[in-house]
Amino acid sequence: MSFFRLKDLIRAVRVCKTATDERNVIRRESAAIRTSFKEVESQDARFVNVQKLLYIYLLGFPVQFGQLECLKLAASARFSDKRVGYLGVTLLLDEKQDILTLLTNSLKNDMNNPDDYIVGLALSTLSCVASAEVANDLADEVERLLDSPRSYLRKKAALAAVRIVRREPDLADAFVRRAGPLISDRHHGVQTAGVALLEELCMHSQEALEAGRALVPTLVRQLRTLATTEAAPEHSVRGINDPF
């Protein structure tokens, strides 16, 4: 028996009185989801099934059979599908799995999407699961997005660059000149991401170390401003100006 909807599955799990009952419920639902993946090509059904798989994963049960379905969902044109698909990718896949290379094309397409939130999803996913091969393939796209007029995308691109440099240190020099503008950015999230990128760069590049020394006055000025000026509402945490 399949419970069809995520909330029905959650309800069925909650009423279980023993761990055995819970395992039986999950086993039946997992079997139904497997069958649905094989027999039903509906994107709506895939969306519901991947949601349920992620819930089952959070309960501690194996759901590796759903990895490819997450990739298919991430390749959808709908934002809601992509959000669930990319979440599944970050939870169920890691950089050591060969299937991850199938994600590269979806990520590249989404980084060129006119919808900023779809671009943000792709960058967040890249930050979590990029392997050395994926990092090499998408480094140019990330570097381009560091110049985005949207602070939302610059921040996420900087964090993706951290992952790229960590997995492929040979690419570090390409991002060194980007650290200064990020740290000098007016948006606090971009500044924080810029510092994280600079820290990672300094571990792999002598040029970055020299650039970091030159940026010390800028960093001190930013910290002094945080400590001495009144907290803006969007940066205030109980009256403290951006404690992060």
Key phrases:
244 residues, two-stranded antiparallel sheet, mainly alpha
Task: Give the topology, please.
Blueprint: H1 6-14, H2 19-39, H3 43-58, H4 67-74, H5 79-92, H6 104-111, H7 116-129, H8 132-145, H9 151-167, H10 172-183, H11 188-202, H12 206-214, H13 216-228, E1 236-237, E2 240-241
Antiparallel strand pairs: 1-2
* Number of helical segments with 4 or more residues: 13
Number of β-strand runs: 2
The main sheet orders its strands as 1-2
- Termini separation comes to 48 Å
Order of helices and strands: HHHHHHHHHHHHHEE
Q: Name the assembly state.
A: single chain
Question: What level of helicity do the residues show?
Answer: 55-70%
Ranges with pLDDT <50 over ≥5 residues?
none
Biggest sheet layout? 2 strands, antiparallel
Quick structural overview:
With about 240 residues, the protein is mainly α.
Structure description:
This protein has 244 residues and is mainly alpha-helical. The chain is 70% helix and 2% strand. The chain contains 13 helices and 2 strands. It has helices spanning 6-14, 19-39, 43-58, 67-74, 79-92, 104-111, 116-129, 132-145, 151-167, 172-183, 188-202, 206-214, 216-228, and strands at 236-237, 240-241. The protein has a two-stranded antiparallel ribbon with strand order 1-2. α4 runs antiparallel to α5 (79-92). The radius of gyration is 22 Å and the shape is elongated. It starts with 5 loop residues before the first helix and ends with a strand. The mean pLDDT is 87.
